[in-house]
Amino acid sequence: MSYTSFTNFPGSAPVDSVNGIRAVLAGAGRGRLAVLLVLVASSEFLFVAVAAYFAATVYYRLVLLQPPDPGQYVPECLLISTLQVLVSVGLRHYSRIQTQPRHMFLCSGASGVLLVFSFFISTIFILKISADYSRATVVAQALSVMLAVLLTRTIWFSLLQPAIASGLIEARRVILIGNPDHCRYFSDRATITGIRTIRSFDFPVVRADGSAPATLEAAQALSDARQLVTECRPLRADDIVILTSEPDVPSVLALASALSDLPVDVHVVPVGSIDLMAVSRITVFGNMVTMRIFQSPLTPFNRAIKRAFDVVAAVVALILASPIFVIVPIAIKLDSRGPVLFRQTRHGYNNEPIRVLKFRSMTVMEEGHNFRPVTRDDSRVTRLGRFLRHTNIDELPQLLNVLVGDMSMVGPRPHPTAQNETFAELISSYYRRHNVKPGITGWAQVNGYRGDTDTLDKMQRRVEHDLYYIDNWSPLFDLRILVLTFLSRKVYMNAY
Prior knowledge:
By secondary structure, this protein is of the alpha/beta class.
């Protein structure tokens, strides 16, 4: 086996000199990072203690009309903040600030707070000091501490990225092993997240002549791996990433085993699946470990929450909009001939056909492959229909679709079946937008991606927003979209 190496360090200085200079700079950068992490932990300790005591003070002042006993609550607030730091250090929250995206760093903090208060409640119960501790105070403290942790980590994370970009803080240093083209692509992706590639090596490959006995090949492979370890050791990397293709798979385990002699994290990424790995998760499946690429967007519990919200919201909306359901049908009849309601077959959850209701806004009622998208100043739209479509009032009958369970208040907008069949051939994962129920309003709509789809790019942008909604659903996200539906001007930009 043999390998070649190349470095992305510019300049003409000898390699040993460059490595020495880099090592000194890395040491300084890492020292600053250590100081930063201590500051993060210290500030979180302080803010958590203050937030916990502040919550107790507010509750006692507003509800019990007296100040809390400092002798009781000061030690317990310090216990909460101590547990917070211990949990964060134990779960390596702070050390992952360089490698985790912002939302993961915040989510780990929120889950850590829940674990902290589980420990805290257990501790005061075991020590038999819970009798005088108000349960409402615990709830208030948990909420206050959660907010303090999220705020503290948001601030520090926003300060870290400029510090890395300016060189004040050393970025996470990674060595890549693999094909040079694959290494460049991976390095470009990693640089965006503040990870710096300090050196790249070719993957050790078996000689093509095959003349050497297997024992000699194994010995050569071991020698190459040891040489690679020798090359990597003075670079003082934080991580080594092996970019492996199919022919390299048998050698990966031996190479990774040799690299385990270095004090670094060793990663293996299959070539050609970097984008796929970005959406995958390692999970336990029975008694095996699998790489889950996609998961069902909503668990049964989440679906139950979303359904309950839909029913309540639809009933309230129907009550509030009841005058419209009297006035609009009369106006439609006076404006043009035809039925009040327009029923059109569209794809719903799991691509199952549903009949979507709308107030009729056009002189025609096209269905199936006869459907033709509405364009600006379309002659088929009635005078009243232009107003109904621009204000989205024509969508109100879909509240009945929500009540019967065909639709949701929030979700990807249902497209005509002919339009779905056309774009499904052109856009990857198009039908994944049907993995949840379609909605009266959606994330794409409140961002202005509605109306005419005369170009592929317009539909791609709409689908991207729909898939983002599916992958990031939460009850608060639904509420945010509903609020934006009424307040955002983008909702009405392309409504015609």
